[in-house]
Amino acid sequence: MKRVGYFFFLFLTISFFGLVSSCTNQSGEPYRSVSDKDLSKSLEKANRYLVRAENEQINDYVRRHKLKMTETGTGLRYTVHMEGNGQLIKKGELVKLKFVLKFLTGDIVYTSEDKGVKTFVVGQGGVESGLEEAILLLRRGDKATIILPSHLAFGLLGDEDKIPPKTSLVYEIEILD
Question: What is the pLDDT of residues 38-49, one digit of tens each?
């Protein structure tokens, strides 16, 4: 029985090295079935498709909820439901806000009722880049809906808790004084 195992191991080893050597050209360099340029183009095409699909999902959400939203150059969408009487928020200012964070399906992920009021200094990080971008477009006291495409939210990783990778998010916020 040991001999069968030995011969099987020897066969696998010879096959592996034969396979490796057959995957190289005469100068010893590996054959490339797809060029780096072709691969880059394919990845770019796939990424464009995913961005379009995510954009369609967001547009569908906006239509279903009959929202009149402004879209920024980054893909962030926002609408102010109730205007506050404060000044526009600036970088470096401390912001406190009540929030409900949802998926495009309407399922609630986090709320300030559960997590507490969200407090951060604008421009210092610690929150999603899309949330910081949106806050700079708002005034103290505003109530707004903000839609963050995945690249402005938690991106390719998600939050490693409730938010999966590549997920668009909807914030319902009220900026507190």
Answer: 888 888 888 889
Q: Does residue 80 lie within any of the structural domains? A: yes
Identify whether the C-beta of residue 145 lies closer than 8 Å to the C-beta of residue 130: no
Tell me which residue range forms the domain holding 122.
69-176
Q: Looking at the 3D structure of the chain, how many domains does it have?
A: 1
Residues 139 and 130: their CA atoms lie apart, in Å, by 16
Q: Each residue of 138-177: b (16+ CB within 10 Å) or e? A: bebebbbbbbbbbbbbbeeeebeeebeebbbbbbbbbbbe
In a domain, 172, yes or no: yes
Burial class (CB in 10 A: 0-12, 13-18, 19+), 59: middle
The answer to whether residue 1 is domain-embedded is no
Using one digit for the tens of pLDDT, what is the confidence trace for 67-108?
999 999 999 999 999 999 888 999 999 999 999 999 999 999
Does the predicted model carry a pTM greater than 0.70? yes
Supply the CATH number for residue 172's domain: 3.10.50.40
